[in-house]
Amino acid sequence: MTNRVQHLTIPTVTLRDRALAGLDHGDSYALWRDAFPVLDEIQVGHGRNQPPLVDHLTVGAWNLERGACWEAAAERVLAENLDVLLASEMDCGMSRSAQSHTTQALANALGWHWVYGIEFIELGTGSPWEQNQPEADATNDCGLHGNAILSRYPLDAIRLIRYENGDGEWWHRRWNEPRLGGRMALIASIHSAYGPVQLVSTHLESNSHPMHRASQMSELLDAIDPSIATVVGGDLNTNTLDVQAVSDIFRTRQLLQQADPTRFLQPEPYEPLFTVLANAGYRKGTANTNEATQRPRERGYPKPPFGRIDWLFVRGCLAANPRTVPALDHQGATISDHELIATEILLR
After folding, report:
1. Closest by Cα among 58, 212, 43 to 117
2. CATH code (residue 43)
3. How far apart, in whole angstroms, are the C-alpha atoms of residue 130 and residue 136?
4. For 189-199, what is the mean pLDDT?
5. Pairing relationship of beta strands 318-325 and 84-92 according to DSSP bridges
6. Would you say the pTM of this structure is higher than 0.90?
7. How many domains does the chain have?
8. Exposed, middle or buried: residue 308 (CB in 10 Å: 0-12, 13-18, 19+)?
9. Using 50, 70 and 90 to split pLDDT, how confident is the model at 174?
10. How many CB atoms lie within 10 A of CB 133?
11. How far apart are CA 19 and CA 15, in angstroms?
């Protein structure tokens, strides 16, 4: 049962440390999951009320890579005249993002309504690169990381869908980034003169394989009301690989691109989730461009070849004028390792 809350139940440092020690000693993830009620909470925040929609809106999806650059992100969202942002990789109380609640900070800067759900309890302070930054704190205030929906318009019918097959164990054991939880999706609706519009923000598993991502998408679509106009967006991690089956990801990607130069920009033949969506009536053609959405950061990651791994899909409405917006602030500094994607939604 998911609870809507004004304030999240923040897990204590002691509890997080105990969970990490237990997992390191071989405890099951299921044993510790129920110790963190925040995994069953959706935080709801309210902005300035807006008049009802008439016949269109502009929706963006953006993996904001922790959300640490939320001020620059707010400027970009306003410059692109978005009405809704489907956001992923948003921190709350993490050393790597100055202990900020980055969703709340971004929403307050915009004056928007928002909802936030937890993907992972972070039991460490981030990736090895993040841990080695000179400004990093030794501990996290909250240790939370998740997805969000931000909107000019009030949000209701709010739900959280947590995918069954995934608990964070592979991150702990392979990537030295211990975490507890799992990939998830947030669902909310806004109202228009034509009825409700269902908004879905999700983040599919990167450290897995295409069939696993297709199964996650099937779970999500089973939970969505098929009678309502719907926009699904987020980082779908359509990297076309079984990441756990290869030893050198970047070398493998280079070889695969040599064999098929379109593989990473047009991953449909290699990622069955596209078929799952198409069979359910979702369309992507007029909601997306053909450009890469991965952007290299100062740490040298991600490495080329770059692909399109962020997508928008629509059903029961029309998409037009898609764009892929560079994740750069007005001075040319990088905001995220993902570009912002956006499209206009025409209601009917």
Report:
1. 43
2. 3.60.10.10
3. 7
4. 93
5. unpaired
6. yes
7. 1
8. buried
9. low
10. 13
11. 6
